[in-house]
Amino acid sequence: MFLSVFDIFKIGVGPSSSHTMGPMTAAARFLDDLRGGAEKIPGAGKLARLSASLHGSLAFTGKGHATDRAVILGLMGCEPATIDPDKAEELEAELRATGRISPPGLCVLDFDPENDLVFDYGPPLPGHPNGLMLRAFDERGNPYLTQIYYSIGGGFVVTEAELAAEKAAKTQSLSAEKVAMGYPYPFGSAAEMLDMGRASGKSIAEMKRANECAHQDIAPRELSRQITRICDVMHACIDRGLRMDGILPGGLGVKRRAKAIHEQLLAERGSNLRQPHAANDWLSVYAMAVNEENAAGGRVVTSPTNGAAGVVPSVLRYYRDQCIGATEAGAETLMLTASAIGGLIKHRASISGAECGCQAEVGSASAMAAAGLCAALGGTNEQIENAAEIALEHHLGMTCDPAAGLVQVPCIERNGLGAIKAVSAASLALRGDGSHFMPLDNCIETMRQTGEDMNTKYKETSLGGLAVNLPEC
To answer: Cβ(402)–Cβ(357) under 8 Å?
Structure first.
């Protein structure tokens, strides 16, 4: 499965790519099915009412991740990349008051969230921990159309049939498939990636750029323009997060801290008070700024998920503002290389916290950022692969157990630590020759196996770990 840089880095809204963006996208896709993309159940009358049920992790942490709001907004025709976050509450209130929606291209439909949107806390649907069922009924209450969707992490959404096809594809030769489809460098593993780099004399970023241009049928200049837009949204998210203060929504009473820390760092610049480890504080504050924005439902870029959205932007800003010799071309190299690593991890394991824990989210993001920074600083393909492996290896086993189901504790600080690990991994790799004991492919496979073995309560259900050890007030 080819994954574009714009599949890995998608513009959307917080607080979760899998629990907010994914369900919103699924609901919007269901509207497309109702407009003619899928046949209605034989014998059904006129379309009249909709319902939705959330299963598995979408049910257990759906309230904290605003999954119900996401489904509502999706059924009203909104999509993550274009919705105005400031209008979301107003739109939701409108539907809850009327119990009726008017999706573009469809008739007025009954949908009462109090009765028609169900959090099902029973067993999850069989395909994935993040499942939702959307149903339509005719005016007599008979079934009109039913579709099951799975939100598989990073804002990716698939139907039951698509999920089965994707799983089958993972057992086939990716290279043979992609050669047939015309991609110049069809690597499906880190080993293939390194072999193709040696054979072609090209860097990982150069191979990824060639694949992207072939995939989109565009010139390299246009690809650069689109990547710059993604980078601009990342920087804007950091800037907004550094300006905002107050209490994050959700009821935990978590204060925004990025603004105050940023002001302290600015005050220390050029003074004798500045400690050598202040670079770590800059990395942390950039990442925290993004994830505070994410927790508040603001505009972010999946990197590769919302829960891990602060790591790559933090390292990108660190490269731009604090690395000697930083260039726009270097930033593009960082993004292309990071997306190549992210695509490998998603294809060979997972980027979903509900599927493999936080090792699949912040761990993947840290590996992506480490590889990207190593490439931007002139690392060889072997050093880049080593950087990614170091970063991912030292996130193995990390659980996903957000307090109260909110992407706040421990998520915000964890992104800062993920960024610090990424820079350290890149630096270590650059000081070596690229040779190392554990290949990246083996590390990715270990992460997948660890996720499979991990107890479900530690995988984004808020049923274990930190989530059930809240301090007494």
So the answer is: no
| Amino acid of residue 429 | A
| One pLDDT digit (tens) per residue for the chain, 473 residues | 589 999 999 999 999 999 999 999 999 999 999 998 677 888 889 999 999 999 999 999 999 999 999 999 999 999 999 998 888 889 999 999 999 999 989 999 999 999 999 999 999 999 999 999 999 999 999 999 999 999 999 999 999 889 988 877 766 544 445 444 679 999 999 999 999 999 999 999 999 999 999 999 999 999 999 999 999 999 999 999 999 999 999 999 999 999 999 999 999 988 887 888 999 999 999 999 999 999 999 999 999 999 999 999 999 999 999 999 999 999 999 999 999 999 999 999 999 999 999 999 999 999 999 999 999 999 999 999 999 999 999 999 999 999 999 999 999 999 999 999 999 999 999 999 999 999 999 999 999 999 999 999 999 999 999 999 876 54
The structural domains of the chain, with segments of one domain joined by +, span 18-167, 174-458
Task: Please give the Cα distance from 138 to 50 (Å, whole number).
Answer: 9
DSSP letter string, 54-90: EEEHHHHSTTTTTHHHHHHHHHTT--TTT--GGGHHH
415 near 358, Cβ under 8 Å?
Answer: no
C-alpha to C-alpha distance for 195 and 1, rounded to whole angstroms: 19
Helices (H), 159-303: 160-169, 174-181, 190-200, 204-216, 220-243, 258-268, 278-295
Contact 185, 196 (CB under 8 A): yes
Report the sign of the C-alpha dihedral through residues 408, 409, 415, 420, in that order: positive
| DSSP state, residue 2 | -
Beta carbons of 448 and 350 less than 8 angstroms apart:
yes
| Torsion, CA 229, CA 230, CA 233, CA 234, rounded to 10 | -140
Q: Bridge-partner residues for 184, per DSSP?
A: none
Q: How many CB atoms lie within 10 A of CB 224?
A: 17
pTM of the model: 0.92
With the CA atoms of 402, 406, 412 and 418 taken in that order, what torsion angle do they form, in degrees rounded to the nearest 10?
A: 40
Structure tokens at 400: 């996903």
Percent helix / strand / coil, the chain, rounded to 5: 55, 10, 35
174-458 maps to CATH 1.10.3470: no
3-state DSSP assignment of residue 202? coil
Residue type, 89: E
Does the domain formed by 18-167 have CATH 3.40.50.150? no
- Which phi and psi (to 5°) does residue 270 adopt? 75, 5
